[in-house]
Here is the input.
Amino acid sequence: MTRRSYAAAIDDVLRPMGFTQQDKEWTRRIGTVAEHVGLQTSSIAGTTANLWSYDTATNDLLKAAIPWKSDVGMVLSAMRIGQLMDGHDRWWKNDPNGPVELAKAIKTHAPSFFEARRSLEDQARCFGRAEPRWKPGSTASRIYLALTLYRMGEMEDARGVLQNP
Here is the structure.
């Protein structure tokens, strides 16, 4: 029996969930949310997976607001698989069971990670809406929160987020 590659093991888990593979990245869209799983390799650390998502409609609003910055983009939330497993960064190196273990971790933890970031309310929470009156944070996350609140129809709150830069 030959050893499975990380990409093949991950593809076996993600393809039935609706993800398509391009090189070392898998993507799917649920409504306006793009969900990604990326395989990261390091000659020093080994192999791990990163999960992230973004709302394409909110991202389009961001690009329309800043047309002179063609490479502008947003990430709703990003996490390494080890953080989801046990709160620690986890890499597999020279481990014959690594591909199967990583694929199993993705199958176990990715669905709930992505589900918790799909609704506009969840996205607003990820961008800091639950913070006490939107405590000062990064400019980017404040803009993302304002755009998300705008999409939710909460214009006063969207303006309020930008009042305290």
Remarks:
- The radius of gyration is 18 Å.
- The chain has a mean pLDDT of 90.
- Strands lie at 20-22, 25-30, 33-42, 46-55, 77-80.
- The first strand starts at residue 20 and ends at 22.
